[in-house]
Every structure is written in structure tokens, then in C-alpha cells.
Amino acid sequence: MRKWRFLVPIVLLVFVSTLLAPSPSPGQATTITIATVNNPDMIIMQKLTPAFEQQNPNIKVNWVVLPENELRQKVTTDISTNAGSYDVMTIGMYEVLSGWAKNGWLLPFDSLPSSYDGQDLLRPVRAGLSYKGTLYAVPFYAESSMMYYRKDLFAAKGLTMPQRPAWTQVETFAKAIHNPSQRTYGICLRGLAGWGENMAFLTTLVNTYGGRWFDEQWQPQLTSPEWKQAVGFYVNLLRHYGPPGVTSNGFTENETLLANGNCAMWVDATVAAGYLANPQTSKVAKDVGFAYAPVAVTPNGSHWLWAWALGIPKSTKKADAARAFIYWATSKAYINLVGGKEGWTSVPPGTRYSTYQNPAYVKAAPFATLVEALINEADPTHPTAKPVPYVGVQFAAIPEFQGIGTQTGQAIAGALAGKMTIDQALQQAQSSAENVMRQAGYIK
């Protein structure tokens, strides 16, 4: 009995301490981790996050900012293994349509607040981020692809860029303007390997040459005449009129090259228009012109449709805080905030009809009408001249495409670097794609 006399005060002390200890407050800050790509628009989002935290003092934001290829790899691994490292992921249309929504990996946005005005989202963009009519990621910015060119360099050579150029014309322009001794290169295009890097652009080039990834029976078509013509044109164009080190250049690197005055032409995402037209970020802002992405033999699939969007993985334990951030970052109010703080050419484009009805934006952005038209014209359900069994302009919305596209991109980068012939690269890619499609049960 004696030992209990000593224990009683200790027990009482612990009990009283427990009562007096501060309990977790309902208003205690929740920290959410956001994985995003290192594109300029996302850097601005990160920069403006203090405005969100001031409005939501109970939520703190932790950022993980990565290059595009690395981001894709990390978020795919994380969500497929249910690891739960992130509360918000920056993903694209491919992820939503290729099985992430169907597999239940993403939380749905099935009850948008009325104040958010979901009907203001551009219909093609909303459809591309939906599964069975339900939105599974909210667009931060959306894009098609277009031609950027230096009006001053064209004028100096007496050249005129058509609104709808042909690739044969582009080659002629590149040859006329290319001047490597002055670090002015005829054309810049993606050469960095990756399904979302060089293959995003190359797929549109193959499309407009009349090619496709798969026929109606899911047989890969990478050694078809159309693929050989398109890849041959691409390799020849960049070897003769492109910048040095082209296989290291993705979206960001080419954007920087053009903004610094080193490219006469660049075909890539429309989202770069604001960056290139902004004197604060572009040395050639007053000289940049805009046109449709070039066409070879068919306009089908000559310009893509994509959205970088914010999604919530099922593994998060902080869904409410994640939704609060996403609604803020994709709202009309956020677009107005960017316009006021960074200038109207810097607002995230391609997501809301109201952006293209805003007089301040339309006045500041000479590319606005063209970008809206390109997004509305892109048709992921009919991306090629020949019938295909897949959806997607610059990708095929099947889980296997990520691996197939990356392997194909690596082979073509090898051909561009002179490590193999174009025929060897495409045969290697074809064999690899056939193996993947056979193992997945698409073909026998």
C-alpha cells in the first residue's frame, strides 16, 4: 500500500497537467504541400501566396517547385503508390484522362461554390479535365501552341509571316534569317527528351504530316512514311538553323532564348505569349509577332490543347485546405490580382471566358484573340487526319503513353544529336512501343 501513496500525487499531477496543457486549436495553422512546375506562371503563383495566407491565416503553404520532367515523375510515383507527400499537385489533361480520375486517385470537384463561377471556365478546357462529366482538376492556365516570330528580323529581310504559315515557308524563313555568328538562330524548337517535352511538339508535327501514334487496332505507327517525313524535317531544320545544344532545350530554355533575342522563330505553347510580350521579362517584347502553328499537309492536330491544372490526391489529409488554395489560385480574383501586381500580360491565360472579355487584358495582350481561337479550335477527339482509337492532340490518353512517349523522345533526341539515324531511332521506338502495347494487352 505504501507505494501507492507516492503514486497518487504523481497521477494527480499528470491529470492536472493534461487539463492545463493547451489543446490543439480549431484555428491552428494547417500546412499544405504543393508540387508544381517551374514555369513562369507558377513562379508568380508562389510569389503571390502571401496574399492567400493573409486571407486564410489558418493555412500555410509549402512549395515543391520542379522541372517539368521531374515533376511528372515524382507526382506519378507519389499518387500511384498513395504515398501522400503532396496535398495539391500540378497535373495536366493527360493525367486526368489517362486513368487518374477513373482509378480514384484524385478527389472530384463535384460541388464548386457558386461564387467560383465554374461556368466561366472555357468548355474545351473543362471537358479535358473531366471524367464522366465531373471535374477532377481545376485549370490554372490552359494553352494551345502557336508560332512566335521576330517582326524586326523579318522586316529586315523583307519577309512576311502569314497568319497561317506552312512548314515549307518556315524552313525558308529560318534559312534567310539564321546568323549564328550574331547568336541569332533561325528557329528554336524543343529538343529535350520527354513525352511532355520534345514529343509534345513532335506529335503535332507528325499530326500535320498526316501521321498518328496508333492505328485503329492500336498498332504503333512510328515507322510509317508520315513519321519518317516529319522527324526527318524536324532533325534537318534544327541541325541547319537551330541553336547549339538543342537536345538540352525544353519549353523554359527556348522561352529564355527567344526572350533574350536569340531566336527568329519558335513554335510552342501559347502560354509563353504573355512572358514574351512583357518588357519586364523579354528584351524583344515590342518585336514579337504571333501566328498559327504551321501546317504541313493537314491542319488536323497542328496545334495542341493542354492545361496545367491543380488536383488533390486522394491520399491527402488536408482536403479542405487544399480546396481553399485551389479555388483562390484559379479564381477571377486571382487573375485580377496578377493583373494588378504583375501586369495584364502576366495573367494565367486560357481558363476563363471573363479573362478574354476583360478590356484591360485585351488591350495589353495583342495575342489574346488568337489564343482563345486556338484553344477553341483544338479538337482532342479528332486529332489526326486518319481515324485513331485515342483522345488527345499531343498525347494519347492511355496509361502506357507516358513510357512510350518518353522512350520515343529519347530515341529521336539521339537521332537529333547524331548518335543514330532517323530510321534507326524510329525502328527502336517502334519495337519498344510494340512490346509495351503487347504486354498491356492492346495487341497480340
From TrEMBL:
Stretch forming the signal peptide: 1-21
Keywords carried by this UniProt record: Signal
Highest taxon of source: Bacteria
InterPro entries associated with the record: Bact_solute-bd_prot1, SBP
Pfam families: SBP_bac_1
Protein name, entry field: Sugar ABC transporter substrate-binding protein
Native source species: Candidatus Segetimicrobium genomatis
